[in-house]
């Protein structure tokens, strides 16, 4: 390779210059425009612009508004690499190529600069070329929500198409966007912007988001040295655990050398109590509370302990509860209560039908019988009857044999059984009958008859026989005795000899009656008292009705009669007894005293002297008449009492 020395180059250039001069060619040197003073719209350069712009406290984003026909608003994170020099950040429709970067005031690229430069290159050879570098605004956005716009043109380099600073309209890039832009020129141009207002904002060390004293604590209240958010000194006073002094005289200084210190922000080097340094220094795990069942498994709470903040004065043993599996019950056992496995006997299941056989549309029941297991059963019917009760009822519309399947679960055991019912086609009706008889218990008459004699207040007993005379079943038969007036229901109801708590006057359901089946109901009735009847005989007819739910021949009625006789005294309704309800007249004591006084007077002869002998004889006759009258009164009273019983 051929090498040209610096001296040779100089000599060549000198010869070329002299030769051109000899031939009369004028040579003009075009020099680079000199920098002019920064335009600040009447302000001075930012005196605070010595710290990195990207490090401003609370700075969230940087937005640049460029307008070439439309607004272009690229937004950058303060630490974005796009704000480094030499990157292509924006290409417009007018073939403008922008590079936005951190710089010093003179436009020199500096990642820690306090300014932002807009450097543009534009090819002026294109048609209709205009002045480029069209900046409307630059905005800093902070987490406080208050934006700061560029307020200083620090320096510039005008492009080829601009001949004066006034033509460049550089101040149009300051402040908020208004649609009016800078025109710094084509080919290569640069404008450097400053943000004085951002650096004029007062920030304090205790609220600037920085660890100014490198003690692993930032701002108030995390840094011990900060007394408030407006404290501007994160270094003073120092906490005891970072002041370089052995404050507790244990020959150990500060955190982490002194075990009394939990951090650099700890203001006491005095050794605190360390509860634990590991889990092994905490209590052993124990089972607590009662065991429980989950399915057929036994669980119980286990309490364990873990050491929080081990090896520090803030350490503590913390309880942790966990429901822990203990064991499974065996297949023939059931878990119940407080996790107790109870051995159960084998589960057995059977079933049968009632009635069987039946006719079409006749109700019947599949009846289960379960034993063993836990004593608690879950039933499931399928097939000819579906249900989950102990028994399952159904009816069938056509003749056939129907089978139901039963499955029973008790604890962990299950068992099954099948039962069937024969359904015959219905041919005739039930044709119920009701026969009613009565007897008088008060009279001691134990023979049943269709009619009975009675007196007021007598106790009677009725016997009702309900029968299904056909070859069909009478379903859901209800027997009811409304009882006529002056006959009162007196309980003591039995059905086929079994005591029943129902009321015959309200109706008693005796179930179904199969072919030629009969059921007997016996109950007591009392006759009303004597005042309810007129003298003589009164006939009471008691009708009893039996009704089934069948739609054919579903009612039967029977009756019996009671003849009630009320007796009276012939021709006597009120007989005088001689009593007047006057104490002086009706009193026995006063007449007795007068009689004794008279006897004494008579015996003493006193009355003879007054002529009373004849008067006394007359009185004796009167006394005899009165005695006879009293005896008659007693007879009449006995007759009345007997009639009222």
Automatic annotation (TrEMBL):
Source species: Candidatus Staskawiczbacteria bacterium RIFCSPHIGHO2_01_FULL_41_41
NCBIfam families noted in UniProt: B_ant_repeat
Compositionally biased tracts (Polar residues): 221-230
Domain DUF11 as annotated: residue spans: 454-557
Superkingdom of this protein's organism: Bacteria
InterPro entries per UniProt: DUF11_rpt, OmcB-like_DUF11
Signal peptide: none
Protein name listed in UniProt: DUF11 domain-containing protein
């Amino acid at each position: 390779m051929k090498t040209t020395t610096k001296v040779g180059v100089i000599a060549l250039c000198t010869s070329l210059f002299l030769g051109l001069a000899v031939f009369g060619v004028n040579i003009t040197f075009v020099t680079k425009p000199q920098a002019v003073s920064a335009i600040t719209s009447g302000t001075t350069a930012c005196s605070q612009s010595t710290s990195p712009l990207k490090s401003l406290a609370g700075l969230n984003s940087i937005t640049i508004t460029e307008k070439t026909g439309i607004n272009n608003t690229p937004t950058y994170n303060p630490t974005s690499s796009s704000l480094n020099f030499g990157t292509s950040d924006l290409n417009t429709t007018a073939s403008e190529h922008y590079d936005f970067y951190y710089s010093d005031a003179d436009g020199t690229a500096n990642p820690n600069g306090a300014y932002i430069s807009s450097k543009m290159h534009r090819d002026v050879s294109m048609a209709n070329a205009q002045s480029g570098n069209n900046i409307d605004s630059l905005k800093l956005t902070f987490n406080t929500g208050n934006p700061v716009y560029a307020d200083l043109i620090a320096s510039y380099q005008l492009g080829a198409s601009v001949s004066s600073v006034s033509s460049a309209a550089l101040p149009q890039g300051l402040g908020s966007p208004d649609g009016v832009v800078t025109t710094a020129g084509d080919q290569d141009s640069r404008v450097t912007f400053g943000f004085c207002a951002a650096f004029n904002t007062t920030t304090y060390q205790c609220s600037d988001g920085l660890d100014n004293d490198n003690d692993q604590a930032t701002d108030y209240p995390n840094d011990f040295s900060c007394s408030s958010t407006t404290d501007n000194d994160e270094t003073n006073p120092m906490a005891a655990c970072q002041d370089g002094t052995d404050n507790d005289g244990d020959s150990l200084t500060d955190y982490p050398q002194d075990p009394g210190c939990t951090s650099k922000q700890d203001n006491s080097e005095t050794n605190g109590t360390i509860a634990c340094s590991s889990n092994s220094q905490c209590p052993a795990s124990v089972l607590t509370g009662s065991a429980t069942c989950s399915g057929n498994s036994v669980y119980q709470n286990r309490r364990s302990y873990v050491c929080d903040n081990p090896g520090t004065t803030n350490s503590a043993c913390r309880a942790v509860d966990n429901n822990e599996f203990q064991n499974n019950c065996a297949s023939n056992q059931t878990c119940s209560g407080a996790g107790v496995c109870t051995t159960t006997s084998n589960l057995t299941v059977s079933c049968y039908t009632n009635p069987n056989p039946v006719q079409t549309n006749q109700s019947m029941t599949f009846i289960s019988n379960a034993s063993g297991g836990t004593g608690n059963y879950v039933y499931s019917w399928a097939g000819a009857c579906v249900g989950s009760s102990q028994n399952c009822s159904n009816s069938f519309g056509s003749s056939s044999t129907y089978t139901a399947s039963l499955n029973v679960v008790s604890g962990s055991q299950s068992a099954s059984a099948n039962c069937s019912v024969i359904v015959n086609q219905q041919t005739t009706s039930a044709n119920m009958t009701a026969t009613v008889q009565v007897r008088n218990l008060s009279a001691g008459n134990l023979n049943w008859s269709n009619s009975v004699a009675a007196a007021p207040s007598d106790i009677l007993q009725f016997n009702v026989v309900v029968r299904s005379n056909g070859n069909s079943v009478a379903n859901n038969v209800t027997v009811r005795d409304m009882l006529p007036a002056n006959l009162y229901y007196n309980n003591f109801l039995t059905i086929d000899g079994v005591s029943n708590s129902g009321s015959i006057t309200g109706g008693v359901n005796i179930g179904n009656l199969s072919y030629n089946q009969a059921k007997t109901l016996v109950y007591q009735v009392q006759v009303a008292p004597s005042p309810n009847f007129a003298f003589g005989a009164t006939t009471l007819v008691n009708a009893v009705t039996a009704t089934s739910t069948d739609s054919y021949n579903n009612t039967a009625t029977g009756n019996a009669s009671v003849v009630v006789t009320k007796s009276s005294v012939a021709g006597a309704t009120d007989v005088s007894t001689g009593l007047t309800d006057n104490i002086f007249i009706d009193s026995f004591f006063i007449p007795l005293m007068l009689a004794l006084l008279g006897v004494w007077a008579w015996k003493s002869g006193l009355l003879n002297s007054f002529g009373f002998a004849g008067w006394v004889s007359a009185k004796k006759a009167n006394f005899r008449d009165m005695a006879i009258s009293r005896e008659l009164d007693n007879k009449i009273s006995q007759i009345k009492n007997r009639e009222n019983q």
